[in-house]
Amino acid sequence: MSATATSTPPPAAPKVAGGKGGRTRLSLPVILLIVAGGLLALSAVRAITGAQDLTSAGQISAALSLAVPIGLAGLGGLWSERAGVVNIGLEGMLILGTFFGAWAGWQTDPWIGVLAGIVGGMFGGLLHAVATVTFGVDHIISGIAINILALGITTYFAKLWFNTGEAAARGGSPKQSPPAEDITSVTVPGLSDWLADIEKHHWFFVSDLAGILGGLVTNLSLVTILAVLLVIGSFFVLWKTPFGLRLRSCGENPIAAESLGVNVYKYKYIAVVVSGGLAGLGGAFLSLVTSHIYNEGQTGGRGYIGLAAMIFGNWRPGGLAMGAGLFGFADALQLRSGGQTVHALLLLLVAILVGIAVWKAYKQRWITAAISAVIGAGVLVWYLGTDTVPVEFVSATPYVVTLLVLSLSAQRLRMPKADGMRYRKGQGK
Fold this sequence. Notes:
The protein has helices at about 1-5, 30-50, 55-80, 90-105, 110-135, 140-160, 165-170, 190-200, 205-215, 220-240, 240-250, 255-260, 265-290, 300-310, 315-335, 340-360, 365-385, 390-410; strands spanning about 185, 220. It is mostly helical.
């Protein structure tokens, strides 16, 4: 009896549908279906509330412009964290990009300014890599130090460079640079006007789709196109090449990677410097495309929101781009006096909360269902009892959306296993 029991192999563990740890990866048709469902919901809200700006080309164009620096900062965070280095310093690298981009841009050519912004961000990334990879400084402490250092450097040099001589004569001051020339924007001829005509009819779904597409093909900066290409290129480099496999192995298990001959230090350095360059490009976009000047405090916490977009996207480029678009949309509301639009979105929030309540009740998670239902009822009372929302709430919308998205997506996240861990050379030998 004992021998039989010993020789019998243990039963195989049951396979969990959806892959490792029960996590499911959405296929392209499912993603498209979700996007279509979201657009239908927005169309319904627009039709019910009359908030025509909700899906207008102007709103989408502003959202895209504001999503680019957030997306580039998040993409920088993705490169760094996929190699195992947490990069809280993205905000500082954005600041360096805004300053050096504007400094070079007003004196020479805006494209040279873009390059200078990238180099400025890479300098911040290099400092972060030296501190965390070489000296083993805690990643969070190093990132915070980069943010403080970047703010101090730019404040000092702005007073030194923008407040004297030719810079002051052209409108510079201790807190801003002289204006730089515009970077070329493109509009798809014919298509943009045709979509604008369809949007004016306010047809259900069709006009909403035309407004969204119109915002994507009208006055599109070349830097925006570059940012989109960088997101696509990052996916192929990190997931479809041997280089990307080695880099991601450093963020999953650097000891095993070293035992297989991977130079972990080198890949971590490359990832963090590239991370800084991407964030610097996002900063240059703010100072050269969005406003044409450097302003103190210009980044407005977009480096942190970029990290939130990266987490929302589960450390993958596609999800990151969707998160950046969502946050950019919320950010655009405050620039377009979006009190009525935000008020209309309260109705959409009610529908989402009711859906969550029903789903949690179906799963017999009664407490979560009750909380969602109560909050949904409170938001509905708020919507029915008001015609708009306070300006202060509109200004806080991007940050409220950040908190809501992170809280709702927290259960499905899977960060790189060695993200934030100290690694010393020779551990894999």
